[in-house]
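**Sequence with structure:**
===
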Amino acid sequence: MALGRAYSVAVTGVDGQLVEIEADVGRGLPAVHLVGLPDTALQEARDRIRAAAVNSGEGWPDQKVILALSPATLPKVGSVYDLALVAAVADAAGKVRRERVHETVLLGELALDGRLRSVRGVLPAVLAAKRAGYATVVVPVQALPEAGLVRDLEVLGARDLRAALAWMRGEGELEVPAPLEHLDVDPRVDLSEVVGQTDARWAMEVAAAGGHHLMLTGPPGIGKTMLAHRLPGVLPRLTEAESLEVTAIHSVAGTLPADRPLVDVPPFIAPHHTASVSALVGGGSGTAKPGAVSRAHRGVLFLDECAEIGAKTLEALRTPLEDGEVRIARRDGVARYPARFQLVLAANPCPCAPAREVDCVCPPAARRRYLGKLSGPLLDRVDLRVRMQAVSTGALINEVGESTDVVRDRVARARSAAVERWREHGWRTNAEVPGPALRQRFRLPAQALAPIERALRRGVVTARGADRALRVAWSVGDLAGLDRPGPEQVVTALGFRDKGFHQ
């Protein structure tokens, strides 16, 4: 009887946990047995790895092989363990250098001819290997750019099983990651192309400066979608830590382009208005996959024609908007995905959506019912609401708005002021500051708070709405270069809450 060992990683949500794979080769009828809560894809690995080894010119034990994956209570999902399973058997047979196998984390799916295929979640798996103290990780060569994002770790890429086993014997070298190229903001979309919408442009700038949620209403063709598409361009580039966090989510979701492994600009996610709850917040059988709200983490989630989205789907946004996280309970455990995004809603004022409001043929009840899907609690979480009006002919032909670069500079200065102000408290944007902190530690003078007190007495805003208006006031003040907002900035913030949906 011979024992072998190898290591891989199980990814749940965006967190990885090291998995030890033990191989026992001993007496008994030739067979391969997998234990340790494997799912269907992993159970099928028994035939897959044996065929891959034989077709790569490697022998396979003509004995009983038991492969145990521990922790035994952790569900194992997917085909990421294939390479480590073969390595454990080779270690038991004494065909590889034991120290190389035991000091390396192995990731990748095997084809029947021995080729290594990439899998989802390579980046969080490599990060987990680094946290566990391992210095070397072997991945499929297709995943090399993604895995190479992790610093202070030796990342090697193998094209097939033959090359990987040769390296484990000390007889060959594997490929290393190429230098990383950064993704630039799309130069084809510029804010200067949006003309005649002064209020909407200003609202978008305030939203970008403070990380606030925004709602745009108006007739079709007025520029709602055009404006939303330009919001990521005025947001600051992601920091290194944020880039790895966002890239890990897209890796698990399987949406990471092979030629652009690092997401270093704010993502823009725009699901169709027929998207289900699972598509929006995440779900699926077994281990839940990230939804649109998580793929928009640190970026923009744009819901066009939001009044056409089902009420149940819209209400599912309330928890991510408040907590900045999605928690999905499944049979195999709870998957947690970060979901701190900027929400941009766009809607027509009524079902018939004429170019001119005077041409509307909808009865009043139909108009109320159309936007009635947007509940009060959901709208209360939207900081800025703007009603966009038709553009005059002169503005459309002659006006040229400020460019993305100019607005981005102002937003960057405002964000820097906010970061400096909230740094010691752990907040990065005004939208993240808790209401109690704004009302107590950073309380504004009585003169500045007077408009909010009047709005609360009249029932115009809720307590949550008052807190959100204060956050917007700080963002308006940052854009104006003020140390703290005054009455004018507070009135501006309250005006944003009264516009749009209720007009």
